[in-house]
């Protein structure tokens, strides 16, 4: 699968924090960047001083955050020449663990998350059609191809990265951060690798249509197609959720 994300998505992730001096906030941002694929496996993080400047916090705060990341197994520190902090992408969880995660969520909560995600992703698609550059469209096309070739949990990650690329193409750092926050909380539930056989081909066709609408500058069509795509995902998850709860 293609590594890394667009510059806009990465810039939004490393934007200054609203609450200065909080190691927990820095840790949360970096955890999101790693688990959502904004930072690639084995990628070297910026220095402590550079991270502190980007987040608008002290180097002590950054150092505390890196300690927490090492404890979670998401970062490793190498000493000596060429050393520094390097990303360790977490292993993909099994289908069984995804099902257990879905089982613990109520149907009303799932619908609520879907409604919130629908509003964010729909707005992002419309703005992307109005503001995206040729480079943005090219990255969307590459992300769409990732969806065609990926399977299992990699397909789930590809789906999430596609929507991050759409948000980045909207040229709104706040909207991109909202997308990241949704995915890092309950929004990731929408793209769990639980789809029935044949759905992957449908998803590929849907993403091609969304990308084409953005490339053509048709904001209303891009929004409509994105909303339909997400509503389908909500309906599929609701069906799986009900099956899991059946006696």
Automatic annotation (TrEMBL):
Keywords, in A-Z order: DNA-binding, Transcription, Transcription regulation
Alphabetized SMART domains for the sequence: FCD, HTH_GNTR
Name assigned to this protein: GntR family transcriptional regulator
Domain HTH gntR-type: residue ranges: 20-90
Keyword check for DNA-binding: yes
Transmembrane segments: none
One GO molecular-function entry: DNA-binding transcription factor activity
Keyword Transcription regulation: yes
Pfam families on file: FCD, GntR
Organism, scientific name: Amycolatopsis thailandensis
